[in-house]
Amino acid sequence: MKEFKNLIVNNKAVANILSLISETNVKLDNNIEDDSNYYNYFLPQKLLRDIEKPILLDTYGILSKSKLLLREPISGSQISFYSAELNYSKANGESGVFLKSENVKVFYSYTFNNLEHKYSSSFFTNLKSNNVSIVFPNNKSAHLIAESVSNLKTYAKKIFNIKINENEIFTSSLPLDISIFEDDKLTKTIAIKNKSYLGICYQLANILHILLKEPKNEIRPGENYSSYINKIFFTFYNFLPNFLNTHIFKFLLRLSGPSSFSNQILEVNNFYTDQNYFFSNAIDDSQSSSLFLKGSFLPEIKIEGSSKSIFSLLKGESNLICSSNFSPKIKINTILLSNPSSKNQCDAKINDSAYELLNLDKCYYLVSPSGLITMVDLNSNLNQKSLVTSSNSKYSDTQQKTLDTFNVSKFKPSLPKIKLRFPFFQKN
């Protein structure tokens, strides 16, 4: 992107992720104090450049102490586990856009080699406040990641029956806040809302991807409405017996759907918008089976007869994507898609399953250059109203159907102050 010819960062994780998802020139700040030495990240598969073939995780599981309560296939977002130990030159006073990582969260990790196990390409978490993750990239090794050295040692003993050497523990510093400076002026800030190692890496990659494609937009992450009932249970499941937890997990899995449930556990369930909150509306309900709502990313669908995806067709600030059966009158970049059997003129043909997945016979999409859906609506409304992006949207309904996320970080709860008046104390 022209806006980012030179990026200067003070965090190795940010530098590595930027290099893995883009060809932007990245340099380290001269005053960097990041001493991380663990460079394995969880990233969206569709964002990775064609450097090397990453390890794709296909199953996830939930741990309670040393017992495995649940193991299910990962559906929906494909997660890549990628190792990146890259070398960067120092900025040495060069000008550029400075991404200053602040409020970092340190994770500790240990790698076990020469193991024999049956959990290849799997990810496991204990879902506790002191999060512990175990990754099995193949059938010969494992990575244990924890938020404290004590937890790392405890789970190494519980799961692998190995007493680890502290000198062999790796560290990784992931930012929770990033300030962006241009010409020494603060232009915007980025806040990471996820908490686990996987969740922070995944969200960081998505936000950096949006930043590179849409540098002028203020994008914020938020959670979808299905997260709350799961979070309530996750908070208390450690106090319940395992036999009961298994049944409740299965119930929630069927209630919210396998994709929504697994994405919630893995912390890849975020919506992205330039507003602080999300609302559900009628079109969300009617298209809920497609899972592609405002604030989510359009899937990377391949174009028939080409190695490229429909992402390669995205241009400008807004892109209208609809079926070739319609003739939109909107004066923005329009992408007409059709299935292989259609004889209509189109910009790209996609296979039947992808066409049905997008539900193009019923709805159309407004998509940003990064692939972020800013609007989804019925085809019957295509030429009946002007299209606006989420930055211009205004909600006038006083009774919103669902309030998904609201920023209350500055709210301090307190009891109301009651003023008592007693008539016999009043002066005449």
Please give the largest β-sheet: 10 strands, mixed
Helix content: 10-25%
Written as H for each helix and E for each strand, in order along the chain, the element string is EHEEEEEEEEEEHEEHEHHHEHEEEHEE
Query: What's the number of extended β-strand segments?
Result: 20
Number of helices: 8
Mean of pLDDT: 83
Give the uncertain stretches in residue-range form.
391-405
Shape: globular
β-strand percent reads 25-35%
What's the gyration radius in Å? Answer: 24 Å
Structural class: alpha+beta
Distance, first to last CA: 78 Å
What features would you highlight for this structure?
428 residues; alpha+beta; ten-stranded mixed β-sheet; five-stranded mixed β-sheet; 8 helices
